[in-house]
Amino acid sequence: MKFTYPAIIRKTADGWHAVFPDLECCEADGDTIEEAVERANEAAYDWISLELSEDEGQLPGITDIRDMELKEGDVVRNICVNIRFTDGWDE
Question: What's the predicted TM-score (pTM) here?
Fold first, then answer.
């Protein structure tokens, strides 16, 4: 199943920092914007996989880009992760 959530990617003194407004405490860093996106993808995969393995397994809604508080220079990227479910994944 494919899941897509927006990440806000911001330049920092040490590189780039990505944060997901909808995935609590899901963040990633990279030396380049490409590395930050790659690590954000890994972080989102881990976050969503863990959430789906919980008893309730409910994912949060998706914030519209027009509702995000962005700073000048921020980049918003939709991060897509594919999670394969196996038999009994929801047991």
Answer: 0.87
